[in-house]
Structure formats: structure tokens, C-alpha cells
Amino acid sequence: MDTSTLKHIPYSVLDLATVLDGYTAADTFKTSLEIAQQSEALGYKRYWFAEHHNMAGVASSATAILIGFIAGGTQSIRVGSGGIMLPNHSPLIVAEQFGTLASLYPNRIDLGLGRAPGTDQVTAMAIRGENFHAAHNFPKDIDRLHQLFSADNAGSKVRAIPGEGLDIPIWVLGSSTDSARLAAEKGLPYAFASHFAPALFEQAVSIYKNNFRPSEFLDKPYVMACVNVVAADTDDQAELLSSSVKRMFLGVITGRRERLKPPVENINSYWDQLEKEAVEQMLYYSFIGSKETIKLNLSAFVSKFGVDEIMSTSHIYDHEAKLYSNKLFASIFE
């Protein structure tokens, strides 16, 4: 297998601000900054946070604030959202928040947008209030954001100050074919959540590429795939570390969402066969192993799907092991 293709692939990080069992969100934010600073030094291109709500183990609910915190503690790495769940917010508020970020940290802020609530329906109702019952139009809200960021909006009665006239790249995020069609239609870069929704990845990428319409923002398709990564010196060490993310996904499918647990020697004692199959299906695009193992498997993945950028997300309990995994993963692209 030719692994040289990875030399030309940008690599990035998705951080869910995972809260460890026995620790607090405050601890998480400190370690996120350390990982972001390390990622910048290792040549990672972006550091994104995802908006989630009402999850004991995920502290990235105030996404724009975290983006500002990380951007303020780094110098050059792009920082952004993977993504902001647009139905939870008015486009004007998003434009003002990201306009503020882009004014503070010029040419470093990305705005990835999703149409899901990032939580359960009861919590979504709590976020949106009476707007929960209102019709949401994700494509029109994206158009509205582009309008608010445009210098041509200066004559409008509603303006994003700051935000107007700033270059803030908008990405469409997705886990389905609907998002692929939308990103293609609008000529926007497309980030797919293959780290938890692998089933439609191949079909979505094909739809996006085959239907892409060049735009003022992008002249050709650009696909970023998010994948799970656990790297260690040996395959066995990585497998042991990966028991934490497997237990996390077990919590997702069983409804027992907890803080990230330490690794365990025998993961099979925690699930039955059906649960194991469900977790492994969700984690299908995971790269777990030594540097050599991951490099081989990732090269095959990039070659097969023709992705333009890889975004890694790593749910590793031990902070030093996570830093080491991040370092090993970056070395694959050298």
C-alpha cells in the first residue's frame, strides 16, 4: 500500500471537551488548551469544538466561548465549530458571535454548521422554547449567514456588527445524504461525521462530489472526514486505551451517558453481543493501533474515498497517553 498520499493531506482535531470520570469541566478546558497548543506545534491545521447539550461527559455546550479560549491561547492554528447546531440559534446571533471571534483572531476562525439539535428532544425544547415548534429552514439560514457576513449587507436594516464584511469560511457538517446534497448545491466545503455515523459516508461523499456546483467560496469539492483515533506504541496498547471510547459509545446506545471511564482489560465483560456489534458499527471508521498500523489503514481510507482532509477525535482517558497519541498521529503525515 502506497502511504505517500498522506504527505499532502491536512490533518486536524475535533475536541468534544470530554469530561473524565473523577474530573470536572474546568479540568477538561485546561487539558484542551494543552492539546491545542501541542497540535499547533505539530502542524495540525484546525482545532474544532462540537456543540452538545445535557451530556455529563461533554463540556462543549458554550461552543463559541471555548473557541475564543483556545484561539486566545494559540497563535496560528485555525479554531472553529464542528459544529454550531444552527436550529438552536438565530443566524444573527451566530454571525455576531463569530464576527467577534474573527475580529479578535483574524483569518483563524471556521464556522461549521449542523442541522441537528446536538441533544435530546426534551433538551432541545428547553433551548428553543416556543421556537421548538417553529419551522426551521437550514438552507435558508445558511444563506442568511452569508448575507450577514457580506459587505453588501451594509445597507440592510439588520446588520451583524461585528461580522459584516469579514471572511469567515462556512462549512456544512453532516451525517446523511441530505447534508451532502446541500453542501454540493451551495458550493461549500463538507465535513462528514464518520466518527459516529459511518453508514452513509461513502454514499454521501459520492453525492457531494458528483453534484458539486462551484461557488464564490469554493471552486471544487472539499471533503473532510472525521474519524476516531487511538495511537500508541503497539496495537495492544492502543486496543487497551480504546476501551474508554468503546464504553462511551456503549453508553450512547444504552442511554447511560457518563463521563469518560478509564480503560479496562476486558471490554467484553461490559457488553453483550448485540451491544458490541452496535458499538463496532458506530466506530467503523476508527484508527486504533501503532503508528505503522494506523498509517497503513488510513492510507487505504484516503485513497478509497479521496478525502481532502482528516479530522481526528480521540477519547483517551489518560492525558499523557492522549498527548502521545496526538503526536504519533501527526507523525503519520510527515
UniProtKB/TrEMBL annotation:
InterPro entries: Bact_Lucif_Oxidored, CmoO-like, Luciferase-like_dom, Luciferase-like_sf. Pfam families: Bac_luciferase. GO terms for molecular function: oxidoreductase activity, acting on paired donors, with incorporation or reduction of molecular oxygen. One of its GO terms (cellular component) is cytosol. It comes from the Bacteria. CDD domains: Flavin_utilizing_monoxygenases (cd00347). Residues 17-302 form the Luciferase-like domain. NCBIfam families: oxido_grp_1 (TIGR03558). To bacterial alkanal monooxygenase alpha and beta chains. This is Luciferase-like monooxygenase. It comes from Pedobacter agri.
